[in-house]
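Reply to thread "Modeling small-molecule complexes from scratch"

Following up on the discussion above, here's a worked example others can learn from. I took a protein sequence and the SMILES for glutathione and predicted the complex. Inputs first:
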Amino acid sequence: MAKAVKSVSCIRRSKTLCWGAMLTVFGDIRSGNCLKVKWLLEWLGRDYRWVETDVMSGATRSTELLAMNPAGQVPAMVSDDGRVLAQSNAIIGFLGEGTAFMPADPWDRARMYEWLFWEQYSHEPYVAVARFQRAFLGKAAEEIEPRLMERGRAALDRMEAALTGADWLVGNGPTLADLALVAYTRVAHEGGFDLGGYPAVTAWVARTEQAFGIR
Ligand SMILES: N[C@@H](CCC(=O)N[C@@H](CS)C(=O)NCC(=O)O)C(=O)O
C-alpha cells in the first residue's frame, strides 16, 4: 500500500533517511500511464511509496527528476535496490513478471506485447492527448486537431473489433495488455470520445476494472 509522500528533492539525500529500501514510484495521480503502475502495485499488495509529481507544474523537468529519468516523464520507478525504470509498460512488465497477467505461452506473451506497443504508438498519443487537451488544458472540442479524434476513434474501433466475441485482448483471462489499455480507454469520454458506440469496449472496461480492482 502507498506510503506517505516525500518531496522529490529528498532523492538527493541519504536513501536510508528518505526512502529506506522501499520501491518508490514518481507519478501524477491523474495520469493513466502512472495509474497503470499504481493499480498493479495495489493489486499485488506491494509495499511502496508514491511521490506525487505534478506534470502541470513542470515537476517532471526538475533537476532531480531529470537525473532519474532523462526523458523528464513520469512514471519513474526506483526499485528496492535503487535502480530506476521508466516507461509505464516496461514498469508493469517488470512488476507483472511471474503473475497470471503475464502469459506463460510465448505466442500469447508476444501478443500481449503487440498490444502494449500498439497502446503507446496508436492509442495513447490520440486518446490520452485529446483528454489532456480537453480536461487539463481546458480546450474546447473545436480546438482539438481533427486528426487526434480520427486516430483516437480508429484505435477504439480496433479495440471494439478485437473485443467483439472476446472477453480479453489476449487469451482467456486478463493480462497486462488489458491493464495498459484500460488506463486511457476508461476516461476516453474526457477527451470527447463517446463510448456509447462501443458496446464491447464498454463491457470490457467494466470487466477489466473489476479484474484489477480499479475504482
Ligand atoms: N511512454 C511514456 C509516456 C510517459 C508520459 O508521457 N508521461 C507524461 C505524464 S502521462 C509526462 O510525464 N509528461 C511530462 C512531460 O513530458 O514533461 C510511458 O508510457 O511512461
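What I'd highlight from this example: The radius of gyration is 18 Å. The first helix runs from residue 15 to 18. Questions welcome below.
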